[in-house]
Design a protein that fits this description.
With 282 residues, this protein is α+β, with helices and mostly antiparallel strands. Among the domains are: 36-112, Type Iii Antifreeze Protein Isoform Hplc 12 (Alpha-Beta Complex), CATH 3.90.1210.10; 115-234, no CATH class. The chain has helices spanning 3-33, 126-129, 195-207, and strands at residues 39-45, 60-66, 118-123, 139-146, 158-171, 188-193, 209-215, 228-229, 260-266, 269-275. The strands form three sheets. Strands 3, 4, 5, 6, 7 and 8 form a six-stranded antiparallel beta sheet that branches. It has a two-stranded antiparallel ribbon with strand order 1-2. A two-stranded antiparallel sheet has the order 9-10. The radius of gyration is 45 Å and the shape is elongated.
């Protein structure tokens, strides 16, 4: 073999060996510095779990999470079994404590009611029931229509917005949407309200007609809306002034004028004559 070629091959092997050794030392140094991240076993959903369900052992599984554990993650299945679900949980998703109802509160609609809030059921007509927006999670305004107390005329019917930005908790007996998110025909809608708002709804539902108005869930502002009267529809939004009756002036009672006396002197004779004002009698 050519001596010169042999020297070149040996030099190439030596350089490759040195390069390999240097790379191995650098990678080994980095691997020794990097500490392996610990994994934690957490409880997860074994299948899709709908809101209102009560967790059973068959609904749960365990998964390994590497790195930081999400706040509120449940590590033991016994802390989740028997608790109601207040938010949909999907298969393989870690189960967090804030997605479940408190221990002992059960499931269903009651478990979805937030602390300090109430579920108030109101009856809606067929138009509202099938209008397409009375599905859980939607936001509505509540309007009432009727004749104010003390005004018995049907022309005095007024409409007023009594509640704004109210969450629909359930529609009928369902507290979740169907697979396609379509509404169902219902006659009763449960709204999530405060105790004070529940009293307003209870009073309005007994005395007046209630109408729900859909709003954008991202629009949380509350505006001042003046009430609208039936007469406003025909007067351009301005209530006509009611005619005022002017009392006729009272006639003054005629009073008799006092008589007056004229003294007549004729020479040495003197006499007096009495007269009354015109229109009177002597």
């Amino acid at each position: 073999m050519n001596r010169r070629l042999l020297i070149i091959l040996l030099s190439a092997f030596v350089i490759a060996a040195i390069s390999t050794y240097v790379v191995w030392r650098m990678v080994g140094a980095r691997l020794s510095v990097a500490k392996p991240q610990a994994s934690t076993t957490v409880v997860a959903a074994a299948k899709d779990i709908k809101i209102g369900m009560i967790l059973a052992p068959t609904d749960l599984t365990s998964i390994q999470l590497v790195g930081q554990v999400p706040p509120g993650a449940i590590l033991d299945k016994k802390n989740a079994i028997g608790r109601g679900v207040i938010s949909n949980i999907y298969s393989g998703e870690p189960i967090l404590d804030n997605r479940l109802a408190p221990i002992g509160s059960g499931g269903g609609l009651a478990a979805t009611i937030k602390e300090g809030m109430r579920a108030c059921a109101i009856k809606v007509d067929e138009v509202v029931g099938v209008a397409g927006f009375v599905t859980p999670g939607m936001r509505v305004d509540v309007l009432v229509s009727g004749v104010p107390p003390g005004q018995g005329n049907s022309q005095d019917t007024q409409t007023k917005t009594i509640l704004q930005n109210i969450e629909v908790l359930s529609a009928g007996t369902d507290i979740q949407k169907d697979a396609e998110g379509k509404p169902q025909q219902v006659q009763v809608v449960n709204l999530l309200v405060t105790p004070e708002q529940a009293q307003i709804l209870a009073l309005a539902s007994n005395q007046m007609k209630i109408q729900l108005v859909l709003r954008n869930p991202l629009d949380t502002s509350t505006v001042t809306v003046p009430e609208t009267a039936m007469t406003n529809l025909f007067t351009g939004g301005v209530s006509p002034k009611k005619p005022t009756t002017v009392a006729a002036p009272r006639k003054a009672k005629a009073t008799a004028a006092p008589p007056f006396t004229i003294t007549v002197i004729n020479g040495a004779q003197k006499s007096e004559e009495k007269f009354v004002s015109p229109g009177g009698q002597q």
